[in-house]
Design brief:
With 266 residues, the protein is an all-alpha fold. It has 10 helices and no strands.
């Protein structure tokens, strides 16, 4: 009983520290380009696509597919840019605040990951819902039930979870140029894997999870005759993705245990 009480108290302390660190992350980014980017990108992106689709001759499902695929393709580079901007704030004080403000060092990393992932979710959700509203009521195209757009947004954001892990670690361990270069390579790979090249392989490349995953979900929503086959494929893909995310998380956590900062000259 005493051991259970001790573990409960420790869990409460860890949770309180994590929440405090997440609030600190939000305050750090208050006067940076990151807030403007997360607010402006969904509004501008959805507006451009709705205006273009108002005169485009594509069928409705192809138009929706094109929009969400573009978001999925762009996410790897966007994530590398956001992580570079966030970690750049730590470089200003040579990582002293980052490494010294947390009792448990991993909580500092976890707070960054969860905060940026939460901002990504809100941004992607806003972009997809604004597009869905403009598509449905602005240019009066049916496309999908409006509730389905939120499922597409969740799929896109879930696929970006390993990207934030990778690029936060790359920026902390190396320099932003390394992270941005990897982001460009992942951007190209996510584009290529939308073709037949990605069939049966995309699950093993986390940078393609958003672009290819949202395509799989959209196909499942719109092609009723293939639902049984697609349901099995999606379930198998989900298992692989969860296992691979767990492996990535475990590797980065193990490596971060020995992290003591780096030189701050890019």
């Amino acid at each position: 009983m005493k051991e259970l009480v001790r573990l409960t108290k420790k869990l409460v302390q860890l949770t309180r520290e994590l929440v405090r660190l997440m609030r600190t992350e939000l305050l750090k980014m208050r006067r940076t380009f990151l807030y403007g980017m997360h607010i402006g990108a969904p509004v501008l992106g959805s507006l451009i696509f709705v205006l273009y689709y108002s005169v485009s001759g594509w069928n409705e499902i192809a138009q929706i597919s094109g929009f969400v695929e573009i978001i999925g393709i762009a996410l790897p580079f966007a994530v590398s840019l956001v992580c570079a901007g966030n970690v750049g704030l730590e470089e200003e004080n040579h990582f002293q605040t980052f490494l010294g403000c947390a009792v448990h060092k991993w909580n500092a990393f976890l707070a960054k990951w969860l905060t940026l992932l939460g901002m990504c979710f809100l941004t992607v959700l806003a972009a997809v819902l604004l597009f869905g509203a403009g598509f449905r009521w602005g240019i009066e195209k049916t496309g999908l039930p409006f509730a389905d757009y939120s499922i597409l947004a969740v799929t896109l954001c879930a696929g970006s979870a390993p990207l934030y892990l990778e690029h936060l670690f790359l920026n902390l361990r190396f320099t932003k140029s390394v992270s941005l270069s990897v982001g460009v390579a992942q951007f190209l790979l996510s584009s290529l894997f939308l073709t037949g090249l990605g069939d049966g392989r995309w699950q093993f490349f986390p940078c393609t999870w958003s672009s290819r995953g949202v395509l799989e979900v959209l196909t499942y929503m719109t092609k009723r005759e293939l639902k049984d086959v697609l349901a099995v494929e999606m379930r198998n893909s989900l298992v692989i993705c969860v296992l691979l995310l767990t492996v990535v998380y475990a590797i980065i956590r193990a490596r971060f245990h020995f992290y003591e900062g780096r030189q701050c000259n890019d």
